[in-house]
Write a structure and sequence with these properties.
3-stranded antiparallel sheet; globular; 6 helices; alpha+beta; 173 residues
């Protein structure tokens, strides 16, 4: 078992309490991010044996600092959940590299590869480069992605209430 954290609105948490599990809700995905989310869901189908096609629940390997902003819109009533689940139920990726997918960009590992892509001479398509967000060791060794501490995020299809070990309520800053 591994420990993860997820931040959820109080409405999502109350719904999970009623259902007995938490799943992602497409109503909370910004329109411009729907395609990247669907790409991530395809990756989940390919890489997670226990995934059943739900919208992803985002989890973190490090406990989120609730004193910082950015979790939700200011004033949102929410919860931070500490979750214990098998690591094979979570698809880990690099948070910073994920933004290349969100922004529909090519994810190069070297300056040379970036230049080749710009010239139309890359050996990889843009979509193939996105799969590198899961290649954590390769990103750590890359000349473009090794300049800061790697921040890991994960996605899972479902969190059962029994997997929630601690609930911390907060109001987003």
């Amino acid at each position: 078992m591994a420990t993860f954290w997820t931040n959820q609105t109080i409405e999502a948490w109350n719904e999970a309490l009623n259902k007995g599990y938490l799943v992602g809700n497409p109503d909370y995905i910004w329109e411009e991010f729907k395609e990247p989310y669907h790409w991530m869901m395809e990756q989940m189908k390919k890489r997670l044996h226990y995934y059943n096609g739900e919208y992803p629940i985002w989890v973190w390997t490090e406990k989120p600092d609730l004193r910082r902003s950015g979790h939700f819109n200011r004033g949102t009533y929410a919860v931070r959940l500490q979750v214990e689940m098998p690591s094979e139920h979570v698809l880990l990726s690099d948070f910073d590299a994920w933004h290349m997918v969100l922004n529909d960009g090519f994810l190069p590992l070297t300056w040379e590869e970036d230049e080749l892509y710009d010239k139309g001479q890359s050996k990889r398509t843009k979509e193939e480069s996105w799969e590198r967000i899961f290649e954590l060791e390769q990103l750590r060794k890359s000349e473009l992605w090794n300049n800061s501490e790697q921040w890991l995020q994960g996605v899972t299809g479902r969190v059962n209430i029994k997997q929630v070990k601690k609930v911390t309520e907060f109001i987003a800053k």
